[in-house]
Amino acid sequence: MKRYRNGEIWDFEHEVAVATNRPVILGLDGGTTSTVCICMPIMPFSDALPDPLPVLARAVAGCSNHNSVGETAARETLEQVMADALSKSGSNRSAVRAVCLAVSGVNHPTDQQRILTWLRDIFPTQVKLYVRNDAVAALASGTMGKLHGCVLIAGTGTIAYGFTEDGREARAAGAGPVLGDWGSGYGIAALALTAVIRAHDGRGPHTMLTSTILQTLGLCSADELIGWTYADPSWARIAALVPVVVSCAEAGDEVANKILKEAVQELALSVKAVVQRLGLCGADRKNSFPLVMVGGVLEANQRWDIGREVMDFISKDYPGAHPIRPKSGNQKEMQNAKTDV
């Protein structure tokens, strides 16, 4: 096993005496906003998940999407969060039996293989390694590990991903903001910022978004918004403005309402694309299938409930869609680890 390339991340292992009767697994959920790693004891496949789940340790770090921060920074984040979880649990890499890494940005077999090769350089050869897109773990979090149905993630980014019972899979969206992840937190907020600039120029209608966003950011004029945006155009920083858009829409702002309505349509279209390609709805479009809904954009509890609007939109075409909202992020992370081991 090699030590962390640019630091002393694994040095804690010299002081850790691992109990031989406690093998562990690591489950990672890596997104554009944050990365979570949990360490838990191995549980038999035949056992139902206990409640509460036996989490030995949980560690949180920043973005691990290589498309957003670059491959080096993404790897450093993933390695750091794994080391933190093991250190907190009083374990080290010798106790690890499997690592399941579900991370955004794994869009092609080459992405998967690159990460597997890197993980193999860190862990002993007998450790089982699994690398998938984070949408796979999100789906499993709502179906208790069964990869069947469709998941819609709408947070900083967005993706729809689905599986048939015989293992066929399909995805829609998830290509990042430049390639049109409309309906995501970034997409909603970017359209709101654009609306402010258009209103300021006289190219678009007046909108409450102008005063509300400027006040939120501590800016005095729309001209300053340009400098704020490009000073740090990270996806998560932009997406953090979604609650402002929702509040303006609830206050009756037509521009904000239009942005959210378009987001609902885009998110629903992503789900429909996956459902149609996999035939999850059956020939008569009435077959039942789970639709797991995950992400901050879908979890709004305001009167303008984006998740509810998306579900209403989908139900018109697919009445058999059964919405599932996982109880907590921790359950998602645990199911991530158990599903593939």
TrEMBL record:
Any one Pfam family match given in the protein's UniProt record, by short name: BcrAD_BadFG
Single Gene Ontology MF annotation: kinase activity
Biased composition (Polar residues): 328-341
Residue ranges the record marks as coiled coil: none
Record keywords: Kinase, Transferase
Domain of life per record: Eukaryota
Residues covered by the ATPase BadF/BadG/BcrA/BcrD type domain: 26-312
InterPro entries reported in the protein's UniProt record: ATPase_BadF, ATPase_NBD, Euk-type_GlcNAc_Kinase
Keyword Kinase: yes
Enzyme nomenclature, EC number: 2.7.1.59
Enzyme class label: transferase
Region named Disordered: 321-341
Family of the protein in this entry: Belongs to the eukaryotic-type N-acetylglucosamine kinase family.
Name used for this protein in its record: N-acetyl-D-glucosamine kinase
UniProt organism field: Gossypium hirsutum
Gene: LOC107959739
